Amino acid sequence: MRTEDVLAAIATGLWRWDNASGTVTLDSEAARLLGLPAEPVALPEVAVRSRFHPVDWNEINGIVNLAVAEGTLAEARLRIMDEDGRVLRTVRSRSKPLENRTADGRLDYELIGTIQEIAEAQPGTTAAHTPITGDWRRSREAFLLDAGRALAEARSTAEVLRVAASLSMPGFIPDGLAVFGVSGDRLSIIGHHGHDPGDEGPFADMPVQTDYPAAEVVRTGRAIYLPSPEDYKRRFPATWPLAQRFGRISWAFLPLIVAGRTMGAWMAAFKHPVSFSPDERSVLTTVARMLAQALQRAGVAESERELTTGLQRSMMPQLGPEIPGMTLAARYVPTGGGLQVGGDWYDMIPLPSGRFALVIGDVQGHDVRAAGLMGQLRIAVRAYASEGHRPDAVLSRASRFLAGLCSEQDTASDPGKGGGPGDGDPDFQSPRFATCLYVECDPATGLLEVARAGHPDPAVRMADGTVLMRPTAGGLPLGIVPDTDYPTTRFTLEPGETMMLCTDGLIETGGHDLDTGWARLRAILESQTPYDAQDADPEPRHLERLADLLVQAVHGPSSHHTTGPLADRREDDIAVVLLCREGEGCGCETPLLHPARPARRTMTTVAQAEPERVAGVRQQIRELLHDWADPEQVDAAVLMVSEMVTNVLVHTDGDALLIAEAVGELGSRRLRVEVADGSDELPHKRHPGEMASSGRGVLLLEMLADDWGVDPRGEGKSTWFVLNERSKPEPDPLD
Predict the structure, then answer these.
(1) End-to-end CA distance of the chain
(2) What crossing angle do the helices spanning 278-315 and 368-386 adopt, rounded to 10°?
(3) Fewer Cβ close by (within 10 Å): the C or N end of the chain?
(4) Which of 70, 114, 62, 121 is nearest to 93 (CA)?
(5) Longest CA–CA separation in the chain, Å
(6) Could you report the per-residue pLDDT of 517-543, keeping only the tens digit for each?
């Protein structure tokens, strides 16, 4: 007996479903079970699909796709319906998807399986109902919930269109989708799915008065349902030839309405007949409303992003032109919420003298007003600098400008004086201030003149990777007191050194304070030094990469889908500027294969009126010797420097100039510290009593320094000492 006869005896039929050609081959038993004449037949996919209950077909489609992906059997329960929509019987299908390649090389699949009639559970029995044949209303509600959630999460027009294209409606799945938008009296396609590239050409730009279903929907605001090609041809004969070539059977055109305004139309086209029953029309109408709202939200979000991008581009200038012998890099990261604009800024300003100025600042606040004040203040600072004013004069004028600007805004928003745009907004009426750091740079010599208004000090990474915070004199933030003095600090950026300017957002974001945040940044700066005596083939590292690493240390890798190792906490804007004076070890040029370890050098001036800066000098010496082998020598160096600088402030009428330099290889370095002043009186050894509060400076130098001396100069003198690094502390001679 043949296998077909055996299967027919047990009411089991065979079928073969070729997805590539859209053809279904049935044996006689399978044809009978589907309500067709009991003879072998090959039918188009549409004819077979019309025999299944629409709810069952929608769900079996997902089961087959899962079986194709997992390489497993696709099992489902299906209700067979006659031409009048009555259920004839229930069958169980078991199919195996097999992959094959089409003539054009495309990978597709073929289903080979069996169909067997089963007895349906009778009312009142305990037989469980299969989940494949769920209730139409329940399936529709589940679909609408999923569709609403997916459309609500879409953030752009492209994402909304992708979601719309992936919707599998209960019982009827569109073969082609198109979204039409309206601009003036023209209709255009915003996006489409299920069409080849170029198919949208005739529909891309047409008058709203065109005899086309989507145009009529936009004109009238009412949906149009075309169940058959005859209906389409009868109602829209002029544009029927355009739609005929796609081979669709049914069409639905629905208006996209938001707040009573028709913003476009949505087309759903089907390759199988759809009668558009009341339930089907209800689903399509609900999807169209959700789609319209999603497109409006996406349009508003894209407009906000475009506004944000435009503000940032207009307020954040490009760093240029190129500076001979120096390299610049900068980054700006706005806060995470709202329009993502704030009060931080940076600028590079060419000066009439041939020098250039670097400016970085932070206007109080993270809102639109802060961004507006920042833009005005940046332009004012650029104007004052371009006139040739010195750093202190630039900041003094900027402070007066900001104070006057805030005063004018407060007056304009006072209801008792006519009111203004800030009526009723206490935050708009509140005064604002700004911190700022202004650096004038001489590219030929590396000389930097710094004026600071309440801003964090600059940091310098030396050629060997040692990082020092450069203490600078400063004044109040801009805008607090109109007439404020801003003293200037001078130091030199040596070849191979990199200076970092940043706003407090880079330091404090992530729950850090100034100390812990600075420690985090210092670790990044020092870890990225290109110098490595043990590396036989050092890889050049560039300033752009270092700028990215500094930002990533706060936010982690920038990604649309994931945050970094820290949560993406953007409590404050971030601006950072890096200036490198090119030289051996800076990373801006290809390093030497075996470079000599560069010297560490720092220079600081302590004025008579600034005795509090002695503490900063001590800290700077500790940072210079952060990897010194003997901690006791570091303490000794700090003590001697403190004594020498204090003696200048106490016993002379001038300022103290400190120059410290460490040279040599690790473990055998030589530290030389020099403190110069304008007095001609040379220090001499004294013998202070037990209770004396002074007179021990020379004794300390003799006891702690390996060598020391005093060098007279034309005007004043220079006191210096030398320490030679010891790998281990020297033994105590008394032990």
Answers:
(1) 110
(2) 30
(3) C
(4) 114
(5) 127
(6) 888 888 888 876 544 444 443 344 578
Which uninterrupted H or E stretch holds 576?
strand 574-581
**Whole-prediction pTM value?**
0.57
Rounded CA Rg of the chain:
40
Distance CA 398, CA 410 (A): 18
Identify whether the C-beta of residue 381 lies closer than 8 Å to the C-beta of residue 475: no
Sheet holding 186-193, edge to edge: 206-207, 186-193, 176-183, 261-270, 250-258, 224-226
- Strands 250-258 and 206-207, by their bridges, are unpaired
State both tokens at 607: 């004025």
Model confidence pLDDT, tens digit, residues 621-655: 988 888 888 889 999 999 999 999 998 888 888 88
Q: How many beta carbons lie within 10 A of that of residue 286, not counting itself?
A: 16
Beta-bridged to residue 252, according to DSSP, are 225, 268
Q: Give the pair of three-digit tokens for residue 517.
A: 């945040």
Mean pLDDT of the chain: 78
Pure H helices in 488-612: 504-508, 514-527, 543-555
Q: Is 348 exposed, middle or buried (0-12, 13-18, 19+ CB in 10 A)?
A: buried
Q: Is 718 exposed, middle or buried (0-12, 13-18, 19+ CB in 10 A)?
A: middle
β-pairing, 467-469 vs 176-183, is unpaired
> CB neighbours (10 Å) of residue 267?
23
pLDDT value at 374 more than 80: yes
